[in-house]
Amino acid sequence: xxxxxxxxxxxxxxxxxxxxxxxxxxxxxxxxxxxxxxxxxxxxxxxxxxxxxxxxxxxxxxxxxxxxxxxxxxxxxxxxxxxxxxxxxxxxxxxxxxxxxxxxxxxxxxxxxxxxxxxxxxxxxxxxxxxxxxxxxxxxxxxxxxxxxxxxxxx
Length: 155
Known about the structure:
Layout: H1 12-22, H2 25-44, H3 71-91, H4 98-117, H5 127-154
Helix pairs in contact: 1-5, 2-3, 3-4, 3-5, 4-5
């Protein structure tokens, strides 16, 4: 019988110092603005389709029922908003209700992007996109809180 493999333990002080050095407030703020810019650009490009006239018939009101939406679209939306949720949770250093506040901010950003798409000729705003973007924000906030709790626990 072979003995179980044990991994070397990283000293808690090292993990805590690494976490503090990597996620400084200035660095988090810059990365957060980049994440917001990427999300807004992904939801609004190309700009040439904006007409200013609403296309209410293009809205997909029922989530997960659009035949043109595939699993990779949903996964892309989740991955697009993961950094936003992660960085916003790190930026707002509060503990009480931070995950839900960050998730609400992600839902609001997603809603604004989908609302913009109502006025674009070849865009199809959908509730599926809002839900998957919000899920990505929730996942990012949750990961940030796990990291914060782990670093605080280890220090």
